[in-house]
Amino acid sequence: MRTSLIRFTGAALSGVLLVGCTGTGQPRSAAPSATPTATYELAPRPVRPGERPINAAPVTDSDGRFQVIGLQTGLGILFGSHAEWPAKGQYVVVRIVVENPARANSRFDAKRQKLITADGAAYSIDRFAQAIKRQPDTLPLGAGVRIEMDLWFDIPKKAKVAAVRLFGEPSLGIRGSTDGVEVPLT
């Protein structure tokens, strides 16, 4: 009698588990309907004097999401809070939004970013111009942090700007560097 009860209980329990696992139990409810994601309504801001807006889509490189929003070219001199400095050629200013959409901290390194000219040459930021204009070389980006800043380049006077190559930091635990992502500026 006891053996029969154990077998019956085991069979009943197996049947319940099988029904739960195979999906032959209660009918499933309809799939959730797609609803649009809520967005922030940010007020438009005027473009700065001498700058033209760039309507580029956001791009991602590893843990960095970037959006180019403005460009100034042909600047012969820059003025900062404590200095003025002439360009060796021409200053080019690329206004970007940098975001860390990851769950871990990340780092942005302005010194890795490159301006690409029409002849294919790549130029690093001008660290002296960055310092005069009080723009960071490197900065930590916490999870979900978003900042807006300028990248200052000093390129030959006759060079034509083609693109900017933006580099994010590799994801946590990954060694090496990223290949970057190019955003056209023409």
User: DSSP strand (E) fraction?
Assistant: 35-45%
Distance between the termini: 86 Å
CATH topology: Immunoglobulin-like
Mean pLDDT: 85
Domain unit count: 1
Radius of gyration, CA atoms, in whole angstroms: 27 Å
CATH-defined architecture:
Sandwich
Top CATH class: Mainly Beta
Element-level helix/strand string? HEEEEEEEHEEEE
Number of strands: 11
Structural class: mainly beta
InterPro entries: DUF4352 (IPR029051), Immunoprotect_excell_Ig-like (IPR029050)
Protein name: DUF4352 domain-containing protein
Biased composition (Low complexity): 29-39
Keywords: Signal
Characterization of this structure:
With 186 residues, the chain is mainly β. It has a single domain (52-184), classed as Immunoglobulin-like (Sandwich), CATH 2.60.40. The protein is 15% helix and 39% strand. The strands form 3 sheets. Strands 1, 2, 3, 4 and 9 form a 5-stranded antiparallel β-sheet that branches. The protein has a 4-stranded antiparallel β-sheet with strand order 7-6-10-11, with no helix packed on it. β3 and β4 form a beta hairpin. 22% of the residues are buried.
